[in-house]
Amino acid sequence: MGKTLFEKVWDEHVVDSIDKGPSILYIDKHLIHEVTSPQAFNGLNNRKIKVFRPEKTVATADHNVPTLNQHLPIKEELSRNQVDTLTKNCKEHNINLYGLGHKYQGIVHVIGPELGITQPGMTIVCGDSHTSTHGAFGSIAFGIGTSEVEMVLSTQCLLQYKPKTMLIEIEGDLREGVYSKDIILYIISKISASGGTGYFVEYAGSAITSLSMESRMTICNMSIEMGARGGIIAPDKKTFEYLKNKEFSPKGNDFYKAINKWKNLKTDVDAKYDKVIKFNAEEIEPMITYGTNPGMGIKINETIPSSAINNSDESFKKSLEYMGLNSGEKLLNKKIDYVFIGSCTNSRIEDLRVAANIIKGKKIADNVNAWVIPGSKSVEKIAIKEGLSKIFDEAGFEFRQPGCSACLAMNEDKIPTSKYCVSTSNRNFEGRQGPGSRTFLASPVTAAISALNGYVSDIRKDN
Amino acid sequence: MEKFKKLNSKLTPLNIENVDTDQIIPARFLKAVTREGFGDNLFRDWRYDNHDNLIDDFILNKIDFNSQILLAGRNFGCGSSREHAAWSIYDYGFRVVVSSFFADIFKNNALNNGLLVVQIRQNILDEIFNKLIKYPSLTFNVDLNDQKFYSDDGVFEENFEINEYNKTCLLNGFENIDYLLNIKEKIVKYEEEK
Ligand code: SF4
Question: Which chain A residue's Cα is nearest to B189?
Fold first, then answer.
């Protein structure tokens, strides 16, 4: 029997297996950041060992950094200490660090691909659940905890149980106004925030292959929001084209040799998945979430339902209470207070371009505070060069500096209690964007048009 | 890692589904660079209001006994991979989390810290939640060796699954990292052959 793409990459990386236990999986690339790594380094220091393969780990500061005045010392003491600790640890252990001010700095899942660190067929891990993003290149990429960060730092390996495989296939043409964020929010609304638990998901079908690399990343990014360990998409011409001439991509002849290898990274025709789910692209419309997990999503012109799959009545009710919403209510035309365009889901240059295109020459509504946080220094640079930052500024958006920002609200960028925010990030959990904050997850397009109108808007009607 | 010992304890019922790690420990408390002290902020935004006053009817504020077992709704620990979630639960004093369904990364993180996750059937979980409304002091036992979770009144007795390897690690306090450090030669050999 043939193998799935996932199985091919997995099997290549198994160093050994424990009888009736996990496999020892070799990790090709390890990304670290300031928040989930310090305790791991402490572990190494306590054991008096050095990082085993420092050249396979790359570090950046993103989760906790301010998005204004990054040239100044970080004001908040604990954040500064965390970033300084990362700097110290990287120096001590010979790890490449793209810290604040570095031209490669940015959200860890934005810089990996854009620098060509992420490549097909690799195993990639990071102490952050959205590591699944990198699966868009045909790699096995997943989030790990700090103990596991310590394991990778000290042995370049992890003990892992092989997840089950799931295929999500979407055939057909996408409708007007539908973007990759809508596709993934649609999928999660259908299978729930836990529907993928225990699985590694491969996305396929014409609606997926028609997407740009950046849009594919948005899909894989949110695999974790259905509970899946990760998402993977078979590499193709677009993948190779994207990786050409990237900073750390193979160069010259090596690049063509690599492509020849990468071409085999696809599921065999006779391979079997543990589960297969199919969707029709034409059924997908612009999506928005109304609740406190990413599975609680609806088409933007629908009304809030009275239940959601895998949510008990009680937790459903609690969720709506937190959001200040009712079943039967529409989100469309609901007044909002904030718009956040950013996060590793939607802060790449493509996202900024589509958003800028909508707001060009217009002004955001008076009742709205709107932020654009580019995913990396390089995105920031291109946005400035292309005049996008100016468009945002003139429309009344605050165009800030790279970082995770209001995606998790560890820095000053917080949505105040009970305020509504249309956000391009990936989590609408209670308090995720600040204590008491209320999040509507949507695409950059929906975020942009809603910022202009001051209420939740449908790009197909309101533009 | 501490060895996991057989325990007897009352339960702390948290009848909420999809408890994500942002609820277990909100991001703004992740600024420490050591592993200690996270228990103080466990379920912070459910335990305290905006002015740092205790919210009286949240379960951790309601019960005045030491409980080592957290009983939670399905899909516990979803969301962020932050291991701080497992640290804060352990640091608060829990040694076991019982639910009908756990998120993957949380499960790994818990086991890596000596925090046992016990998965039981949904209908049994519901029954226990119901029973605790009337009998909040009912005590339960967790026996990892026999893989049993049972109540002292003899009504509930559930077997739970755990991989042999993880079980050995928990019972003996072995850590994965030691296992990996011990097979470094094999890892180097793999690198050379690749
Ligand atoms: S942007 Fe948000 S989801 Fe992405 S890495 Fe940062 S905190 Fe995590």
Answer: A15
